[in-house]
Design brief:
This protein is of the alpha+beta class and 366 residues long. It is built from 5 helices and 21 strands. Strand 12 and strand 13 form a beta hairpin.
């Protein structure tokens, strides 16, 4: 009798719908009307999140400011590149309900990535932030960015594992021309083929220069990478720019980075800029399948009924102010890196399984 009670109790508890989105987050690719499901999220609202607070542990919010140098030989330019935490500036808005406008430090609110005009020890100083985890596998990765209008820098949002497994969205500010409304974005898969071509991806089939229909320096826009098992799709403001497939599509997990740099290379970044240049990131949103076995196991435990009406949540298109992690019960068992209402759903998850264990122990003693 005790065993039957225990089994019934565990069955009832395990089949409860704990929260919305417990079976993941989805997109539909327009070209084939196919749904793609992603189990994990990382959402970073840089308008309100300060990742530069010195009291924080390294990577406390999933991101870390990078601090490293590259010689001119390694950087493949007349100058080296120096990435310094001081060039990464959180410029927040105190009001949690306001998502645009000036930050407390003046200028655009968000994460300011600065490239300095001065040369220090033969290097141009720039900025890079990276996720501290490298378990980002197939997924849809989005960033709200306002690109500098000062010529001579490269602003980049990219997925990275190594120099032959990389997905790039890159803006070269020297290419912008308001006189003829030319604002190109460079879309790149860095692969073994591009390495064999001297890391010149333009000599491969995995490089496209697309002219945007808007000025990326005038306002924030969303830039998006959909990294799928057999292809990579690039978007701007939910409009498909191009699609790439073949051997250049990465085959492993990696991390996410946003950077702003210059090394004087006349064929790419040009520069250095004549004055300090700032590119601002308002958010990064990642919906992905983790390569970690522990996260895969977590998903199996929480996804009890994929057919339930709220078990899978559709990811909104180009919505700068919506975050699942800021909405009640829409980020179950997720790590959201900041205090929000979804923290309660994570607590609920923990309490529920604690209740299962307590119930089990009580029934065994009967």
């Amino acid at each position: 009798m005790t065993s039957l009670r225990l089994l019934a109790s565990l069955t009832i508890l395990s089949n409860l719908v704990l929260a919305d989105c417990e079976c993941g987050y989805s997109i539909i690719t327009a070209s084939d009307n196919k749904r793609h499901l992603f189990t994990d999220i990382l959402e970073s609202d840089f308008v309100h999140l300060d990742i530069t607070d010195g009291s924080q542990k390294y990577g406390e919010y999933g991101w870390a400011r990078q601090d490293f140098n590259m010689s001119s030989d390694v950087a493949r330019g007349p100058y080296g590149e120096s990435y310094t935490p001081q060039n990464v500036i959180s410029n927040n808005i105190a009001n949690e309900q306001v998502f645009d406008g000036s930050g407390t430090k003046g200028g655009d609110a968000g994460l300011n990535l600065v490239v300095k005009s001065d040369i220090e020890d033969g290097m141009v100083t720039g900025a890079d932030v990276s996720t501290t985890d490298t378990h980002y596998f197939h997924g849809t990765f989005r960033a709200g960015i306002k690109v500098t209008d000062i010529p001579g820098t490269c602003s980049a949002f990219f997925w990275y594992m190594n120099d032959t497994q990389e997905i790039d969205i890159e803006f070269l500010s020297s290419e912008f021309n308001r006189n003829n409304n030319t604002f190109p974005v460079n879309l790149v898969l860095q692969s073994q083929e591009s390495k064999d071509a001297g890391f010149d991806a333009s000599k491969t089939g995995d490089f496209k220069k697309i002219n945007l229909s808007f000025d990326p320096t005038a306002a924030f826009h969303e830039y998006r990478i959909d990294f799928l098992p057999d292809r990579v799709l690039f978007y701007a403001d939910a409009e498909l720019l191009t699609e790439m497939n073949g051997t250049g599509v990465p085959s492993t997990a990696g991390n996410l980075q946003v950077s702003h740099w210059s090394n004087g290379n006349g064929g790419w970044s040009q520069g250095p800029p004549k004055s300090d240049a700032t590119t601002t990131v308002s958010y990064v949103k990642a919906y992905f399948n983790s390569s970690l076995e522990s996260r895969q196991n977590d998903y199996q435990m929480r996804c009890k009924d994929p057919s339930a009406s709220t078990a899978v949540c559709a990811i909104p298109e180009n919505n700068a102010t919506f975050f699942f992690s800021n909405t009640d019960n829409m980020a179950p068992n997720q790590t959201t890196y900041h205090e929000n209402s979804s923290g309660r759903s994570r607590q609920w998850w923990s309490l529920l399984f604690a209740a299962v264990l307590a119930t089990s122990a009580w029934m065994v003693r009967i």
